[in-house]
Amino acid sequence: MSADDDKAQLRGEARARRQDTFRNEGAGAAQGLARHLMAILENQPVVNVAAYWAVGSEIDLTPLLDALDEEGWNVALPVVVENNAPLIFRRWRSGDVLVEGPLKTLQPQADCEEIVPDVVLTPLLAFDDAGYRLGQGGGFYDRTLEKLKARAGGVLSIGVAFSAQRVDRVPRDGHDQRLDMIVTEKGRI
Fold first, then answer.
1. How far, in whole angstroms, is CA 16 from its chain's centroid?
2. What CATH architecture applies to the domain 3-188?
């Protein structure tokens, strides 16, 4: 089987595992994740944090986003500009009205300031101990991380997930970007 075939098979299994975990542990896991991420971010020379607005069974970042905004951090959410292109990130503040993007994700409105992140919190379906993630399959985060890592100063890439999303090995190929760390409701991996 090819890496693409292996990824497709794992995506189905990973979605089911994530859905079960979300149903059973969602709210408590979101709070635990927020605590662990705040502890990590407070020790980084960070100004701009890009996150995501959870869709479906993705682990909820709302407690973290609200805390970061309240403490004065520049928080941004991803915006899909076009297929096969990197994401951009626009400023978000607690209470902002979000609009539906082309892939049914919620994103800041077009008049919100574009921000280049120092840290990107990345959603995923599965992760392994080597720092690789399995995403939805569109390649948006891989293209984005590749672009951000190449710029001066780079970017800190953090995968966020339920601990139950850990697998032995994520299938990968040449375009898959390795994350700097993974953080779950149980802590840093």
1. 19
2. 3-Layer(aba) Sandwich (3.40)
